Each structure stands twice: as C-alpha cells, then as structure tokens.
TrEMBL record:
UniProt-listed InterPro entries: DUF659, HATC_C_dom, RNaseH-like_sf
Membrane-spanning segments: none
The name this protein goes by in its record: Transposase
Domain spans labelled HAT C-terminal dimerisation: 448-531
Length: 588
C-alpha cells in the first residue's frame, strides 16, 4: 500500500516543500534543510543528492542514468513523472525559440536546485510567463473543474472531512496524470474487482502485523453497537503496539446476547487468532459481556485440564462463577469500597518519598471517592464510611498526619482545601508534643502566621510556583529560610513515613541466619549477619522481592570460617537446586 502521506525519513530533520509550488512531484518527496539540492523519496526513504526536483522525477519515473530507479513507486506515479519530464523538455525548447510578452507577474524569488550540468531549474511556481488571456482561461477551467467536483460531493453526501484523507491528493495526482479522456471507475468496478484488490492489499499489509502475534502477544477487543438499520453488530479488533487491525464483524440479529451465546462467539474468535497468542480479551462494560468473559475462564481447555479444576476449592470456585449470580454483584461492591483504599495503601507503601504530608488528604479523598462510587446515596455508602472512620479514630488517626497535611504547601494552599481548622488542631498537638521548650513553641507559633499568610520567602512567586512541583521537604528546605525554627520543625515532620509496610519484605534471609545451625557461630559474626542482610533488603528502594536464589547463602556449621569473607557472595553450599534451601538446612 502506498503511504506517501507521511514521511519516515530519519537522521536530518525534514523540512516542508515551499508553499507556492504547483509541481505534483513535490507531493512525493521531502526537502532536506541545509542540504542544497537534496530531496528524499517518500517511497524508499532514499536521499537524492543533486539535480533537485528533476533528479527526483527521473528517480520516480525509473529513468536510469543520473540516479537509481525507485522500485516501490506505483505505476500511476511512474507514468505521471514520465509525462512531467516530457513536458519539461518541450517547455525548455519552446522558451528558447520564443519569449512571451505581457507578463502576468514578475518571477518570485524562491529556492533553486542546481543540476550537475549547471542548468538551473526553479521550484515551479505559478507560471510566470503566461499572457493575461491564457491566465484567465486557465483560472476559469480550474474553477469549472472544482465546481464539478463540489457538485458531485454534495450530491453524494460525502462528509467534508473526507478531503483530509491521506488518499485524497494522491487520487487527484493519479487522475491528472492520465490526461484528458480518462474515465473513473463505475459502480460495478468499485463493488467488484477494485474492492477485491483493496482487500488483497490490506491482507498483505496485515501479514506484517500477524507475524508479531506469536512473539509479543495481542489483545482482542469486542465492541457492540447498533447500525442505522437497528441491527446489533459486534466488531472484533486485534490490538498490537504496531497498530490495531479489524478482524471481523458479526450481525447478532436474532441471537440472544446472554453469557452462554457470547461465550461461544468469543471462543471462536480466540481460536481464530490463536489461543497461545491472546494475552487479554477486552469487551464492553455490558454485564453479559463480562459474564461471558468470566465463564470462558472456567470452560477453557487450560482450566479443565489443570489440577485445580479437580480440587475441591477449584470446583467450588467454578460453581460460583458459572452459577452464583449474586457473587459477582457482591464483588462489584467490594471493588467500589476497596479500590480507593488500595490507592492510599500504595501511597504509604511508597519508599521513594515520605508520605506524611499526603496521608490526611489521601484518606479524605478515598472516602469521597467511595461516596461517588455509590452515587452519593447515603444509605448505601454510610455503613462502610462508619467502619473506616471507626478504624481511623481508634487505630490509625494521629495528630502527626494532620500536621503533615498543614505543612504540605501543595495541599494547604489549594483553593479547594477546607480542613484548615481540623489540621491546625493536629499541628498544635504535634508542636507541643515534639517541642518541649515553651520559648521555641512561641517562636514557631509566630512563624506559622508568616507561612499561613504566605509572606516573606513563603510568598515569593517562585515559592508559589514550586508548591506542587517540589516535594514538601525540598520546598521547606528552599523557602523556609525566613523561619528557621519552623523550617526545622516542618522538615522533621514531613520526612517521616506513615506505615510499617516498608518492613514487610522478604525476611527469609533473616530467619535463615537464626536457624538452630546458625546459633553456634561466633557472637560478633552472627550480629554482623543480622545487621547487614536485612538492611540490604531495606535498601532496595524499588521494592524488589528477592527470589530464594538471589538471597546470599549462609554456610553450614562446619564451614563457618568461610563466612566472614563470603557474605553476599557465597552461594550453593551443597543445597540441591530442586529443594527449599531453608528447609534443607534446618532438616539436615
């Protein structure tokens, strides 16, 4: 398929063609800025050095001699370039014999391209040597042609944006290259042989997409809609990063679109693409679509042939999915409640930045999201909000969280923030708890007014812009210099975490050290191991959970002399690779 509508050239940036040119050849190339007389062919991404537009025409017309022939150009473009070269030669000969008078306008200064034979050919512009009479006649013919196109356009109800199609201008290039007398394709041509040719071209293009399915996998997308005739249609598309392709369309008129029917339909589509190639199946949010997807999970060959399908738990789950209609409705309720709370957990479990300044607002946002998930219906969401509030008040709430919110400029100065009174109370409680000196308390209290009113360095335009760009600790470090005591207090509060989940990592190495066999090690070496290995795990800011093979192996009792030099590098002390190394050590 021709893709001349977009360039794929790399390397030097490609510029656009001068706007006043009317030579059709420019639609098939790009100019290389800064490279005199150099163009790039859109079909082969080939750099044409020297000769300007004439050399490009020879390349596209497959005229050998000065330049290599383009092997990817279509027949119609090739024929058009040959015609343009022929007309150019005749024009040069005619200009040599006679100079026309009564110029329409002076020549426009434009970029020129010099051929190797030192002949200069300008980028074609409105032909400057026409007589007034010939120019008027040409303009009248152009208007007549344009109106003929417009009348057909309006009569056929073609949308205006169709003129932006990448095939629109190449179509006119092909038509004009045929010259007078060319007749366009008729009704039967368009619906018969030409349509078959178009399908063939598309299939050839899709082969390149299909070839990547086995390597990268793909996603099947099902989209249900109703056409103008009120026929229910389901379109199936296959998505890949290189592009989506339309697979098929099924008319579901007369079919009951329940879970069982859709399941059979989806199963056929998956098999057509290849079960091994499909990563996921994406459907509408319609309940029957979702139910069909869930049923497919437990009717697939992979599930039926697995050991889980024969287990008591597997049978129970399968029965729930296929038979229990209330189960999935209850799951939706669970998701509505837990999704906002999981976002809060992700915040507090993030080790890349302290979460103290964000937790208070995050919990408030989570509760607001839960209310929206239940369409703000008090009777639906209030039982769950009461449970959350009870846990917050009894176990989770801390004045430190409110202080962190108060001292976080990205939240406190937000116009929509309306918890100033509540967080101020928490801030004062934190202040009197952490700072025992009453003089310092008074000083920090007075400096708080500067922060609340955004005066001094707090009110600098730079400080205001950086409120949401810098993390709170960095912001106080830069802009809290006018209130040093408050700055120190704020940094101390905002630098803290809000959860102990950072400690919940893979402690298998820790247990390994304290096995019965390990207790005979020298006391100092044992302490060194207990100190170093867990801290190496905590130092992993990317939250990577080590596999057993990644944990440094500690030697057995009779190999203790190798321990000191081998921490972090000693592996495989006779531990069979197919057994759990920790159980092996303790059992032997």
């Amino acid at each position: 398929m021709n893709t001349s509508g977009s360039g794929t050239a790399t390397g030097d940036s490609i510029g656009s063609v001068p706007s006043k040119t009317d030579d059709p050849a420019w639609a098939h190339c790009l100019i290389v800025p800064g490279k005199r007389n150099q163009t790039k062919c859109l079909y082969r991404d080939k750099l044409i050095q020297g000769g300007g537009i004439t050399r490009l025409k020879e390349h596209l017309a497959r005229i050998k001699g000065n330049v290599g022939a383009c092997k990817k150009v279509s027949v119609d473009v090739k024929w058009q370039m040959q015609q343009l070269l022929s007309e150019a030669r005749k024009g040069k000969e005619k200009r040599k014999r006679k100079r026309l008078g009564d110029m329409v306008g002076s020549q426009c200064g434009s970029q020129t391209f010099v051929e190797e034979n030192d002949e200069i050919e300008e980028i074609p512009q409105s032909q400057s040597q026409k007589t007034i009479k010939s120019a008027l006649q040409s303009k009248e013919k152009q208007e007549a042609a344009r109106m003929a196109i417009a009348r057909w356009w309006y009569d056929a109800n073609v949308p205006f944006h169709a003129a932006r199609s990448k095939y629109y201008l190449p179509m006119w290039d092909a038509i004009t290259s045929m010259g007078p007398g060319f007749k366009g394709p008729g009704y039967h041509d368009l619906r018969g042989p030409l349509l078959k040719c178009a399908v063939k071209e598309v299939n050839e293009w899709l082969l390149s997409l299909k070839s990547t399915w086995s390597t990268n996998g793909c996603s099947i997308m099902a989209d249900g809609w109703t056409n103008q005739r009120q026929q229910p249609i389901i379109n199936f598309l296959v998505y890949r990063p290189r592009g989506s392709m339309f697979l098929k369309s099924i008319d579901t008129s007369g079919l009951t679109k329940d879970a069982e029917t859709l399941e059979r339909m989806f199963d056929e589509v998956v098999k057509e693409v290849g079960v091994e190639n499909v990563v996921q199946f994406i459907t509408d949010n319609d309940a029957s679509y979702k139910a069909a997807g869930k049923r497919q999970m437990f009717t697939s060959d992979a599930w039926v042939g697995s050991r889980y399908a024969r287990s008591s738990v597997g049978k129970e789950i399968c029965e729930i999915v296929l038979e229990d209609k209330e189960f999935w409705s209850n799951c939706i309720v669970v998701v509505k409640i837990n999704e906002p709370l999981v976002r809060v957990l992700r915040l507090v479990d993030n080790e890349e930045k302290p979460s103290m300044g964000y937790l208070y607002e995050a919990i408030d946002k989570a509760k607001e999201t839960i209310k929206k998930n239940f369409n703000n219906r008090l009777s639906h969401y209030m039982p769950y909000i009461n449970v959350i509030d009870a846990r917050l008040d009894k176990q989770l709430y801390s004045p430190l969280h409110a202080a962190g919110c108060f001292l976080n400029p990205s939240i406190y100065f937000k116009p929509s923030f309306n918890k100033q009174t509540t967080v101020t109370r928490g801030l004062l409680n934190t202040l009197t708890t952490l700072i025992s000196d009453e003089d310092k308390q008074d000083l920090i209290s007075s400096q708080l007014e500067e922060y609340k009113k955004a005066t001094g360095t707090f009110g600098m335009s730079l400080a205001i812009r950086q409120r949401e760009k810098l993390n709170p600790v960095a912001w106080w470090d830069q802009f809290g210099t006018d209130a040093l005591e408050l700055q120190k207090f704020a940094i101390r509060v905002l630098s803290q975490c809000t959860s102990a989940t950072g400690c919940e990592r893979n402690w298998s190495a820790f247990d390994f050290i304290h096995s019965k066999k390990r207790n005979r090690l020298e006391h100092e070496r044992l302490n060194a191991l207990v100190f170093s290995l867990p801290n190496q795990i905590l130092d992993d800011t990317d939250n990577i959970v080590y596999d057993e093979e990644d944990v440094p192996q500690v030697p057995l009792e009779n190999e203790s002399e190798q321990l000191w030099t081998g921490v972090g590098g000693v592996t495989g002390y006779g531990i069979p690779p197919d057994e759990d190394p920790y159980n092996y050590v303790q059992d032997h």
